[in-house]
Design goal:
Elements: E1 20-25, E2 42-43, E3 46-47, H1 48-57, E4 62-67, H2 72-81, H3 85-88, E5 94-99, H4 104-118, E6 124-129, H5 137-150, E7 152-158, E8 165-167, E9 170-173, E10 181-183, E11 187-190, H6 191-204, H7 211-218, E12 223-226, E13 257-270, E14 274-276, E15 279-281, E16 285-287, H8 295-307, H9 313-316, H10 329-342, E17 346-355, H11 365-376, E18 383-388, H12 394-397, E19 401-411
Parallel strand pairs: 1-4, 1-6, 4-5, 7-12, 17-18
Antiparallel strand pairs: 2-3, 6-11, 7-10, 7-11, 8-9, 13-16, 13-19, 14-15, 17-19
Helix pairs in contact: 4-6, 6-7, 8-10
């Protein structure tokens, strides 16, 4: 908390009665996630970023998303194909993507300027991390209500570990956990004042770790509300899997392990790539199919869905639907893995077999196992792949088709 009695920016007149806008920050480099853009990772049937935006659509007049420098075209193409596209198009003041800067603070400033271009004026802005997909609509509404009354508001969560302040390799201070909390988003503010505060911070070189710190430094105190334990931020890849909410009570008789079996067969035709778990096999023919035809992924997806009693591949990705035309089956497999994780199922091991006359698949074994493990976020040692032939019997034996079998074990 700033100790200055006078602030360079006057606090807003209360209560606030303007519209609500949202700024979703997704301009980071995702270095700790592994370098891949974490906000665009598949998550519970969509992406992390889409899930983070959803709770704001009903309450906001306009939304701005920040993206990494140079990635605006990629983000625009992504949102053009997003399932959110129709509802985003109906936002009263529109939707915009703006390139961020070298720091989060710079990116927020650029985003606030873009909101001004959308018509955000004597209004409220909610600033939310695009890597917080578990945000609830209730928390959004409560934050807005308290911001109208106080001018600035953010959710806080209690510490679950004991904090220490260090100097070098020595513990210097032992602060009371009762008076230290962790900040969440969305952080909400009266728009003119937070924009002015960010502009002044940029001119003065004042560096803050979040927007509440900037408001406190230049405008005044920030009101806080209790956050939600599940509203955590994805930083590392392992944060993506498993619900952060308290696990639901399971009946005592519920099984702790289940198995699933999957099978698929596809004709082989010219001018198509031959794909197995996303690995392209050198061949003059590939699988026919409405999606990319990856027969191994299709068998594995059915096995996973079957083990969790979640239907089959046609239930979730029906052929004939435009969104699944030439779909990347690796992306579909990630969606299915997320479905299982939402129900607290974890993949123990996979055993799969592909039957094909030629080419020989043995040289691709390690690459295929690695691709499966990477997509499903399991150890490579939990994946077995075998290749067989039909020795001339039936359509597969005549080289007209390719066949795949899979069995999986999942556990709670």
């Amino acid at each position: 908390m700033s100790t200055s009695l006078s602030k360079p920016i006057p606090a807003p007149s209360l209560p606030l009665d303007g519209r609500v806008f949202a700024l979703i920050t997704a301009a980071g480099s995702s270095t700790r996630f592994g370098g891949q853009k974490k906000e665009l990772e598949q998550f519970e049937g969509c992406t992390v970023l889409e899930r983070a935006i959803e709770p704001f659509i009903e309450t906001c007049s306009g939304i701005v998303v920040t993206c990494p420098p140079g990635a605006r075209a990629e983000f625009e193409a992504f949102f053009a194909q997003s399932a959110l596209s129709p509802v985003i198009a109906r936002l009263e003041r529109g939707f915009a993507i703006v390139e961020g800067g070298s720091t989060r603070q710079d990116s927020v400033l650029f985003g606030l300027r873009a909101l001004k271009e959308l018509g955000c004026d004597r209004d409220i802005v909610l600033i939310h991390d695009g890597a917080r997909p578990w945000i609830s609509a209730d928390l959004v509404r409560t934050t807005i209500e308290q911001t109208r009354m106080h001018g600035a508001c953010l959710p806080l969560a209690p510490l679950v570990e004991t904090p220490k302040i260090v100097k070098g390799q020595v513990v210097h201070t032992h602060p009371s956990r009762a008076h230290v909390m962790t900040a969440q988003t969305p952080q909400a503010f009266s728009f003119p004042e937070i924009l002015a505060a960010h502009e002044l911070a940029a001119r003065e070189g004042y560096v803050a770790t979040d927007d509440a710190m900037i408001w406190d430094h230049y405008v005044g105190p920030v009101f806080w509300i209790e956050g939600e334990r599940q509203n955590r931020k994805i930083t590392y890849r392992e944060d993506l899997f498993g619900s952060p909410a308290m696990p639901e009570a399971k009946p005592a008789a519920a099984p702790t392990t289940r198995t699933g079996i999957g099978y698929d067969i596809h004709p082989l035709i010219a001018d198509r790539p031959l794909l197995l778990a996303g690995v392209q096999i050198e061949s003059d023919r590939g699988e026919a199919g409405y999606s990319d035809g990856d027969v191994l992924w299709h068998a594995l997806i059915d096995a996973l869905l079957g083990a969790a009693a979640l239907g089959d591949i046609g239930t979730h990705f029906p052929p004939g639907k435009p969104e699944w035309k030439n779909a990347d089956s690796t992306a579909l497999a990630r969606k299915v893995a997320a479905m299982l994780h939402r129900q607290d199922w974890h993949i123990v091991n996979i055993d799969c077999t592909v039957i094909l006359e030629k080419p020989r698949l043995g040289p691709y074994r390690e690459q295929i196992c690695s691709a499966i493990a990477r997509a499903l976020n399991i150890p490579q040692g939990s994946v077995s792949f075998k290749a067989k032939t039909k020795e001339g019997f039936d359509a597969v034996g005549r080289g007209e088709a390719i066949e795949a079998h899979a069995i999986v074990l999942i556990a709670r």
